[in-house]
Write a structure and sequence with these properties.
about 220 residues; three-stranded antiparallel sheet
Length: about 220
């Protein structure tokens, strides 16, 4: 048992912990900035539902890493893999649709102060973006989420491979040998004593010889 614990390399679990932490922290940070002339606004991950998804899955990856540190199991590794894939997928999706997401968020924030409908403000922002007057740039929070998802994915794969290897090693180990005392006792009990002293067990005496039958009488002579 001590040998397998010493041999275990928790690289996958550590990557799960780091990846989950990056995704969770990145969910609180700014994902994109929008700038119109001298006016700028930012959109954080938790400004939308996607940020909550990456936050929850980041915590799941952290928990999977903690469990994998104690006892690597393929089921836990699969949970980490799924969390990493979804986190990375959400991050990449938001990166490719950052402009639309930021414009929606800015329109919702600015419309009440302007006293205009959200759709009208959104259309104005879209026109400015198409003409180059509005610039949308990705920020560190979104990069942290994508990197965290990738690390969690790699860590889950490594943890799964480690767990599979250890399970195969445990299955290949021979079972414990039967105790020698039982076999020795049975051998001594069944083997007659070969020493100079007689055995303490009683020895059956041979039966007495049977007496020979008397000879038959002589036959009478013929007349």
């Amino acid at each position: 048992m001590e040998t397998s614990t010493t041999r275990r390399a928790p690289i996958g679990a550590i990557l799960l912990l780091i990846g989950g932490a990056l995704a969770a922290i990145g969910s609180f940070l700014t994902w994109a900035d929008v700038r119109v002339g001298d006016v700028s606004a930012s959109a954080k991950g938790l400004d939308g539902s996607d940020g909550y998804i990456t936050l929850v899955l980041g915590v799941v990856a952290i928990l999977a890493g903690i469990v994998a540190l104690r006892a690597p199991k393929r089921a836990i590794a699969v949970v980490g893999i799924i969390a990493g894939v979804v986190i990375m997928g959400v991050g990449i999706y938001d990166a490719t649709t950052a402009e639309d997401s930021v414009l929606d968020s800015v329109a919702e924030d600015v419309a009440p102060s302007l006293g205009a409908p959200v759709d009208q403000v959104r259309n104005v922002l879209q026109q400015q973006a198409d003409s180059g007057q509005l610039n949308v740039s990705l920020q560190v929070g979104l990069y942290a989420v994508i990197a965290g998802g990738a690390l969690a994915l790699v860590g889950g794969v490594i943890a799964a491979a480690t767990a599979k290897r250890e399970e195969a090693t445990d299955a290949a180990m021979p079972g414990a040998d039967p105790p020698m005392t039982n076999s020795t006792t049975s051998t001594v009990a069944t083997t007659p004593s070969a020493g100079p002293w007689p055995s303490s067990s009683p020895v059956a005496e041979p039966p007495p010889p049977t007496a020979a039958p008397p000879p038959p009488p002589p036959a009478a002579p013929p007349e």
